[in-house]
Here is the input.
Amino acid sequence: MEKAMFQAHGIGYALYAQKLEQRMMVEQEREQDYLQGRRISEEMRANLFLGS
Here is the structure.
């Protein structure tokens, strides 16, 4: 988990757990990634149903 956290966000889990500012930054990045994934999924689904 430590390695994945560092690779994905550039900080270790210990720092994530200790510093609120770092945690908020990571959570904002995660939310943006989630929303981007949802948009891509919706676009692909719409293209599938439109036959494009």
